[in-house]
Amino acid sequence: MQSKYKVGLLRLNLVLAALLLALMAPASENLTEALLLWMAAGWLAVSAALVEFSHRRPALVPWQLLPSLLLAALLFTAPERFPLWLWAWAALIMLPQPGWMSGLNLLLAMLSWSWLAREMPPEQAAFAGALLAALLLLGLSRSRDLAPLRGVASRRAHLVPGLRLWPRAQLARDLIRERARVHRDGVHGELMLLRTERQRLWPQAQRLCDLTRSFEHCYRIDGRTLATLLLSADAEQAEGRRTELLARMGPVRRLRTTPLDQVVSLAEECRALERQPATASAQRGVEHV
Amino acid sequence: MSELQHVKLHAGLYFLAALLLVGQANWFYLVGDYDRILLPALLAPLLITAALMRLGQPETARLSAYLVLVCGYLLVAIELPGESSLAPFWLGLPPVLTLLLLPLGPAMLLNLTLTPIWLLLGESLLDRDLALGYLSLVMVAGLAPWEILHQRALLKATDPLDEECDAIRRSALHDRLQSECERAELLDQRLAVLVIHLPQLEMAGEQFGAGARRALLTSLCDTVLRCSRDHDLLGREGEADFWLVLPDTSENGALLVRQRLKESLQSTVLLDTGRVDSRLYDCHLGKGESPQRFLQRLQITTQRHAES
Asked: Does A111 touch chain B (CB under 8 A)?
């Protein structure tokens, strides 16, 4: 893949940063400082382990929040040891992040500046503050750069490169198109919703993509629900395919299939799946509407 | 944020930095610190030049980033050798400034090569802890541009739509064509593909700029959307070559679409390039032809007609 190399280098950078912070930790003067450094190193190391080339794990807000809080805490506990890290706020604000997080980062940057400024001559403090503000603005403009692109594309992009798995918003659009097509072609189409365990979602998604034909797209509805649009010559063949698919998918907690011409809306189908009793045997969960 | 807003923001910030330096020079004058007036007084006009250059052509804009960087470096270099306790504080400014102004690769290289210079400049700075602190700042701050690059590459690999227009990308197009071939075979249907070439596209970009190019692409996508059905699929095979995949379409049907599209495009008149010129050809999936074979045939057709 053309972009695989980037993940390797990014991981190397994360590991190096974690190592450097871990090297700094033993020289700390007190326990809080050492603890904070170890936590920062740990955060970087875990990020290095988690980084991957897909939309599978959207950046979680608490996970992104941690480095900001750690930086602020370090600047507050040991201002004489890490004064140079004040400038790191400009880099943190550069990360793609929601608006309120940018606001929080700006606030924390201002607070830590005023904390460091106590030790400086006033004119130096004012000069440094003005420079920091300029750098923060530069960083903010870089982060806003990507935001509109992400907003639109995330509703139609594949979730994992190379896998035929689409987000929920795409299903809503495909449903209308596919219904009209199935009607024209005179074949039997059905929407299948599958509820799995949260931790088994991605392996199950992979298997679902392998078991369906290349023109039957698969979708991730939420953290534990998958969907697919199945096409068969008639209702009987559809029944056979469903049984075979289920047998090879392994255990599924809930299942709901609806012929495409009876689907009112995706939201309605999801609610119906929710109301359905969880059955131990997936086969009995099949409901024919 | 659009490119123009970026340019304006950067130029504005450089200009404000110049004002800040004038303020600093004045302050030194007021407190009678005459030795230190010279540097900010000299750098302020340099920053104003950088601000004006940022507003110019892309090449001069890149030069302006280096100019600002040099100003920042000089300011810090003057601060470092002093006895002041603020030296470690200023040490953090250059690497972050570099990362903000330059692309990731050059910025990291510059930061790492400059490490010994910064640490040697201030005598009080030669200390293991500070060196580690500097290096970790370089590494951690470098992660932010990394993340941006990562996200961008990811979007490029997963977003099926082309960057310039509403057609799908080449890789997505090949996937979809393959699946449409399989569907046609399963349902025993015909499949036709219209190969569309826009001979004016290259010229439009070179002579009239990106705007004219985009207008041409948009008019093609809009016209195709108007003339085709909901499940027909427009994809971009090459720079100026498009494929319109028409599932369940006979030879006559494809000819009809081709004619309608040709007429529609011809009647579209654009500001710069005038009447939209297009070359259209239709290809059909043969009985028992494999998707790979059909794809190859389409590519050969596309190439032949793009060259003629």
From this structure: no
- Of the candidates A167, A208, A223, the one whose C-alpha atom is nearest the C-alpha of residue B159 is A167
CA distance B71 to A131: 13
Complex ipTM, two decimals? Answer: 0.79
Whole-model pTM: value is 0.80
Distance (Å, rounded) from C-alpha B106 to C-alpha B63?
14
The token pair at A267 is 């939201």
Of B128, B143, B187, the CB nearest to A14: B143
Element (H, E) at B304: helix B291-307
Residue in A108, A20, A145 with CA at minimum distance from that of residue B145: A145
Give the start-to-end residue ranges of the domains of chain B: 3-155, 163-307
CB contact under 8 A, A85 and B137: yes
Name the CATH topology of B163-307: Alpha-Beta Plaits (3.30.70)
Q: What is the pLDDT along chain A (289 residues), one digit of tens a residue?
A: 444 557 888 889 999 999 999 998 888 888 888 999 999 999 999 888 888 777 766 666 677 888 899 999 999 988 888 888 999 999 999 888 888 889 999 999 999 999 988 888 888 889 899 999 999 999 988 887 776 666 666 777 777 777 888 888 888 888 888 888 888 888 888 999 989 888 888 888 888 888 888 888 899 888 888 999 988 888 888 888 888 888 888 888 888 888 888 888 888 888 888 888 765 444 434 444 4
Using a CB-CB cut-off of 8 Å, the residues of chain A touching B248 are 184-185
Q: Residue A152's closest chain B neighbor by CA?
A: B159
A17: its two tokens = 């940063």
Tokens of A89: 């706020």
Q: Do A123 and B27 touch (CB under 8 A)?
A: yes
